[in-house]
Design goal:
The complex is a heterodimer of chains A (about 260) and B (about 350).
Chain A (H helix, E strand, L loop, with lengths): L32 H15 L5 E5 L7 H4 L3 E4 L5 H11 L4 E7 H7 L1 H9 L5 E6 L29 H4 L5 H6 L4 E8 L3 H19 L4 E7 L3 H4 L3 H15 L3 E5 L7
Parallel strand pairs in A: 1-2, 1-3, 3-4, 4-6, 5-6
Antiparallel strand pairs in A: 5-7
Chain B lengths: L3 E4 H11 L4 E4 L6 H13 L3 E4 L3 H13 L4 E5 L1 H17 L3 E7 L15 H5 L10 E3 L4 H18 L2 E7 H5 L1 E4 L28 E2 L6 H21 L3 E4 L6 E4 L2 H16 L4 E6 L1 E3 L3 H10 L2 E6 L5 H9 L5 E5 L8 H14 L7
Parallel strand pairs in B: 2-3, 2-4, 4-5, 5-7, 6-7, 11-12, 11-14, 14-15
Antiparallel strand pairs in B: 1-8, 6-13, 10-12
The chains are: A alpha/beta (about 260), B alpha/beta (about 350).
């Protein structure tokens, strides 16, 4: 890492969080993974928990998250991050354990692992990035792909009579008694990004307080596979994703508000 | 220490507890469920971690996680469950974290049945998961050996940072025998976890445990490292037992329960004037190939007996390289071959190779 001397008449107002490395990411222009990484890292810094945090990366676009977070990290098999996180947390109860997963990873192949971990009230925090497509493999239909959405494996648009319906993970998990906190946010503008960061902080605090399972879902852009510009992508989130995947808190267990 | 009468599955679990296992994650499946049940009762008593996973897929990934955190961990299953674990086994092997599992083998393929079998030899030894790797595979022939080998499994897994499997047919899991358990050793305190483990990046660079290497050169480098380690294991850790081989001119080769039965066959054959001996591999991988190659120069023929359609026999033939005839007898579906059916096979071999060594 290089350090730059700050001129006497200037003030440092923005810098890389300690919880991020200076690695260049593989994320496409217009992707919001980088924003979400930064928010998680800022919260790790602000809570002072980086040195006792263990993250688990998924299979998907964020597979290399372990190179971007300056924290101990494991890379899981596709969908298995919640099981791996369970193993880590159970033998290291004093550590902060989080998974970072995409929609194919969490809501398709890893559906069993996420539901079971949530139902056990596993003291882990899950960051779930939903961009309605399999980004890394080239834009196939995801469990969260919207009705009618054209992808490389739903070229005529997602037909719900054939492929079923997009999965609403926050709603699904919120009914489980082991879940303490679940919220859905997006990071497409300043105010939504601020709210998302607040939710990340709450989710980690829920784990630190031992209240139960916590998860934050992020509606995220994939300009590359959506074949849209970034402004168009943001608008698509507003116009198409949010009506199907409403933002807000889906479970706030007793004790969470007081954190 | 006094001997206790214990069922194989419970003995394996208790021995692992005494060997300092910190966490067990598993899923019920016959004929190994008593391993899980024993852990469920004893781990809370010892203040250690027991969790019944939602599936074998989850169980193997839970031990993968716990192993990454530097804890001494194991899981246990039986044949169809081990098939589900193969994804995780491959990740563990590539990530080079130590882990132990048992396979209390039952009849297959498919759902098969719950009778004892050895039909997972290929899976354990040749194809434990995708990619180039081997597990250390330990095959006990009785409950005492299962106890001794589960302790060894932890030692080897940690020494080589690899995955070690105790592969026992269902009868070893289910039968009761007098056994001497190892002494209780203290659990390693969390602050003494290995330096590579995920314990939080305090006062050091962040640790990463991954099995992803996108560059071909990097992936080959990892493979070369794994292969070098496997070579070292193969050089140092081959284990087997011999019975009456000094003057043998016919050799039985078998492992596990049927290896034990073949001791009786050796005695009966000798009473009939046939100079039989037995080699019983204890490590199925690494395989005692060099010793078998030596014995192939001594004996007139070999009879491999297994509780499967003929799996280990392929490794025996590879070791023997045609130096003597290698014949096979096996039963499948959970049927255990008995001395009175093995003995005629040995006599048939004796008649076939009468008059000295072939070639």
């Amino acid at each position: 890492m290089s350090t730059v001397e700050i001129p006497a008449d200037m003030e440092l107002v923005y810098e890389r969080p300690e919880s991020l490395t200076d690695a260049h990411t593989i994320y496409c222009p217009g992707c919001t993974h980088g924003v979400i990484h930064r928010l998680v890292a800022e919260v790790l810094d602000e809570l002072g928990i980086r040195e006792r945090t263990i993250g688990i990366a998924p299979v998907g676009c964020s597979v290399l998250a372990y190179e971007y977070f300056n924290a101990d990290f494991a890379e899981a098999a596709h969908g298995r991050a919640p099981a791996m996180a369970t193993g880590i947390k159970r033998v290291s109860p004093g550590k902060v354990v989080f998974t970072y997963q995409g929609d194919g990873d969490l809501a398709s192949i890893g559906m069993a692992e996420i539901v079971q971990a949530a139902n056990r009230g596993e003291l882990i925090t899950v960051f779930f990035v939903n961009n309605a497509t399999y980004g890394m493999t080239g834009g196939q239909m995801a469990p969260t792909t919207l009705p009618g959405q054209v992808t490389t494996s739903s070229p005529y648009g997602r037909d719900v009579r054939v492929a079923g319906y997009p999965t609403k993970m926050c709603e699904l998990l919120s009914v489980l008694p082991g879940v303490a906190y679940i919220a859905r946010h997006t990071v497409i503008d300043v105010s939504s990004t601020r709210r998302a960061k607040k939710a990340i902080k709450t989710a980690f605090k829920v784990q630190l307080a031992g209240l139960g399972f916590s998860m934050v879902e992020f509606l995220s852009t994939c300009s590359t596979n959506w074949h849209m510009s970034l402004p168009e992508s943001r608008q698509w989130i507003r116009d198409v994703m949010i009506p199907y995947y409403p933002l807000g808190e889906f479970k706030v267990a007793d004790g969470v508000k007081e954190l | 220490m006094a001997k206790e009468l214990l069922e194989g599955n419970a003995a394996i679990a208790e021995a692992a507890i005494r060997a300092g296992v910190e966490a067990f994650f598993g899923y019920p499946i016959t004929p190994q469920s008593e391993v899980l049940e024993h852990f469920s009762r004893r781990m809370p008593e010892e203040g250690r971690v027991f969790l019944q996973a939602e599936s074998e897929v989850a169980a193997i990934n839970m031990i993968y996680g716990a192993a990454c955190a530097g804890a001494r961990v194991m899981t246990s299953s039986s044949s169809p469950g081990v098939s589900l674990m193969q994804e995780g086994i491959s990740y563990i092997a590539c990530s080079e974290v130590p882990a132990v599992l048992t396979n209390i083998m039952r009849g297959g393929p498919g759902l098969g049945n719950v009778q004892p079998a050895q039909s997972d030899y290929f899976q354990a030894v040749k194809s434990a998961g995708h990619g180039d790797f081997h597990m250390i595979v330990l095959a006990p022939a009785n409950v005492q050996e299962a106890v001794d080998l589960i302790v060894l499994a932890f030692e080897l897994a940690e020494k080589y940072r690899t995955i070690a499997m105790l592969a026992a047919d269902g009868s070893i899991g289910q039968m009761m025998e007098p056994v001497e358990l190892p002494p209780m050793r203290p659990v390693r305190p969390p602050e003494e976890r290995p330096s590579w483990a995920l314990t939080g990046a305090k006062g050091r660079e962040h640790n990463i445990i991954t099995s992803l290497y996108l560059g071909a050169e990097n992936m080959e480098e990892v493979n070369l490292r794994l292969q070098a380690k496997l070579k070292e294991i193969a050089a140092n850790e081959v284990r087997w037992k011999e019975y009456s081989t000094e003057d043998a001119d016919l050799l039985l080769v078998s492992f596990g329960t049927v290896g034990r039965i073949c001791q009786t066959v050796v005695r009966e054959a000798r009473a009939n004037g046939v100079k039989a001996g037995l080699l019983r591999p204890i490590t199925l991988w690494p395989f005692p190939s060099a010793r078998l190659a030596e014995l192939a120069r001594q004996v007139r023929g070999m009879l491999v007996v297994e509780m499967n359609a003929g799996q280990m026999v392929e490794d025996v033939r590879l070791a023997v390289e045609g130096r003597c005839p290698v014949r096979f007898y096996g039963r499948m579906g959970g049927i255990v071959p008995l001395p009175d059916e093995i003995l005629p096979e040995l006599e048939k071999l004796d008649a076939e190779v009468v008059g000295g060594r072939e070639g």
